């Protein structure tokens, strides 16, 4: 398995996350790698990540020149070698044990498994109401225009089978926070199976999301995907 962590100014949150991930992986029967993709940080995220490589041979640290979470995730998922490729936010806002719900033998026969904070069985801890209702409003627009039926496209924990990742991420055009919406839209068009996995999720006040600016940008991106689709930009090349 590959665990891909996009990291931007994460010097405070990354050490604990890496400690928990490696402790978990050491007890698993499968082989694994962890890929940190850093871009645009103004703190010591890159140096700190590189220091960890001396203790962990299966840790790869990448500096991506292009900005944005979407660019970082694409780079990591395409460089990864795992049969299963798991995107994981640097704050590990989901207990690492939950990863097992995204993998065989617990989960079988899927192309993409996405963490959801909205399905029955999910638990959200400490999320402020403004963030929750802001997220719900954006999800409404996403469902109306692009992805009916998916209640949480933005959760930072998603697992792709290798060939699905290779296929989808090459078609990605969005570079920022909304990249998940485009990927899931592409997946729907290809009739891939998307499984929603209810998770435990802990809100972290140290979020990199700027509620107003990023929400407006996401609304713009949602319309961009909608227009791209109408213009046939996602159609298979002849
Ligand atoms: N590499 C990279 N990672 C980013 C960028 N923007 C956000 N991230 C990462 O995206 C993840 C989610 O960010 P977070 O602040 O936890 O967002 P929230 O959980 O939605 O509040 C974290 O791992 C961030 O470091 C970026 O521009 N580049
Ligand atoms: Mg977070």
Proportion of residues in extended strands: 15-25%
Rg measurement, Å: 17 Å
The best one-word shape is globular
| Mean of residue pLDDT values | 97
**What is the number of independent domains?**
1
Features:
238 residues; 7 helices; 9 strands; binds magnesium ion
What does this structure look like?
- The protein contains seven helices and nine strands; from the N terminus they run βαβαβαβββαβααββα.
- With 238 residues, the protein is an alpha/beta fold.
- It has a single domain, classed as Spore Coat Polysaccharide Biosynthesis Protein SpsA, Chain A (Alpha-Beta Complex), CATH 3.90.550.
- It has a seven-stranded mixed sheet with strand order 3-2-1-4-7-5-8. Strands 6-9 form a two-stranded parallel sheet.
- The protein is globular, with a radius of gyration of 17 Å.
- The mean pLDDT is 97.
Topology:
Blueprint: E1 2-7, H1 14-26, E2 33-38, H2 45-52, E3 59-63, H3 69-79, E4 84-88, E5 112-116, E6 123-125, H4 129-145, E7 157-161, H5 162-169, H6 179-189, E8 194-198, E9 200-202, H7 211-230
Parallel strand pairs: 1-2, 1-4, 2-3, 5-8, 6-9
Antiparallel strand pairs: 4-7, 5-7
Bound molecules: guanosine-5'-diphosphate (GDP) and magnesium ion.
């Amino acid at each position: 398995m590959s665990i891909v962590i996009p990291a931007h100014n994460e010097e405070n949150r990354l050490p604990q996350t890496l400690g928990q991930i490696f402790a978990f992986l050491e007890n698993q029967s499968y082989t694994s790698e962890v890929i940190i993709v850093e871009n645009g940080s103004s703190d010591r995220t890159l140096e700190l990540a590189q220091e960890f490589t001396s203790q962990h041979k299966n840790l790869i640290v990448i500096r991506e020149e292009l900005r944005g979470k979407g660019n970082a995730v694409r780079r990591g998922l395409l460089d990864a070698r795992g049969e299963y490729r798991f995107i994981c936010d640097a704050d590990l806002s989901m207990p690492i044990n939950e990863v097992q719900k995204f993998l065989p033998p617990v989960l079988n026969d899927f192309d993409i498994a996405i963490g959801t904070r909205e399905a029955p069985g999910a638990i959200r801890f400490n999320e402020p109401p403004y963030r929750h209702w802001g997220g719900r409003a954006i999800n409404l627009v996403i469902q109306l225009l692009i992805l009916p039926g998916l209640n949480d496209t933005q959760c930072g924990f998603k697992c792709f089978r290798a060939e699905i990742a290779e296929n989808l991420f090459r078609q990605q055009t969005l570079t920022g926070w909304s990249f998940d919406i485009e990927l899931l839209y592409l997946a729907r068009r290809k009739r891939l199976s998307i499984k929603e996995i209810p998770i435990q999720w802990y809100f972290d006040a140290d979020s990199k999301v700027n509620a107003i600016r990023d929400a407006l940008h996401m609304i713009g991106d949602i319309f961009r995907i909608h227009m791209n689709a109408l213009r046939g930009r996602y159609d298979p090349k002849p």
